[in-house]
Amino acid sequence: MKRQPHEIIVADGGSSDGTENVCREYEGVRFIPATNGRGHQMNEGASHATGDVLFFVHADSSLPDKWEYEITNLLNDHLAGTFWLKFDDSSFLLDFYSKCSSLKHWLFTYGDQGLFIKKQDFIEIGGYNEPMFLEDIDLLRRLYRKGSVVKSSLPITTSARRFRKKGVMRQQLRNIGILAGYLAGISPERLGRFYDYS
Predict the structure, then answer these.
(1) CATH code for position 149
(2) What is the domain count for the chain?
């Protein structure tokens, strides 16, 4: 298998689904045990990265064609960026949510859209706060304050399983309620009790 011009680091938070064995099946994939929690895991993965650019991707996401060229080109002129979100299922509400994710504002930009940033800038801004719920929103707010954050014209595709399981309207209302609580000053620790990671 030809090696790719990038490294893949899987920062695992103690899963029991055979993730480590799956990683061993692919050349160039590094399995990194990490403390459970997305902030912990992403910071740990970043600390093991040897490249100049970091790209944080959730495990249930699929990347668009030529994503690496898109990231390289956008980081020539911007501090950081994300893709917009597309689901692996379609409905009026999911399509509407997807359309909102293409808007360039931190309120419509989340970790499941794939964050790319130069490693040095990630270090300088302090990485993800940990342990912390809503670590992606916290980091993106800091990035928007510091400089130019771009939204790619390409989509990243993610699983709609949580919406299918909970109901699209119910899940989205929960997400809006959590975000509203965050903006009202309720601590992320308290808000995390209302979030279902399953």
Answers:
(1) 3.90.550.10
(2) 1
Q: What angle do CA 91, 96, 99 make, to 5 degrees?
A: 125
As a dihedral over the C-alpha atoms of residue 93, residue 170, residue 102, residue 69, rounded to 10 degrees, the angle is: -110
Please report the pLDDT score of residue 4 as a whole number.
57
For 110-148, what is each residue's pLDDT tens digit?
889 999 999 999 999 999 987 667 889 889 989 988 888
Question: Distance between CA atoms of 55 and 42, rounded to whole angstroms?
Answer: 10
DSSP 31-55: EEE--SSHHHHHHHHHHH--SSEEE
- Please tell me the least confidently modeled range out of 6-15, 46-55, 106-115, 164-173: 164-173
Q: Is the pTM here over 0.90, yes or no?
A: no
Helix, coil or strand: residue 179? helix
The answer as to whether 192 is a domain residue is no
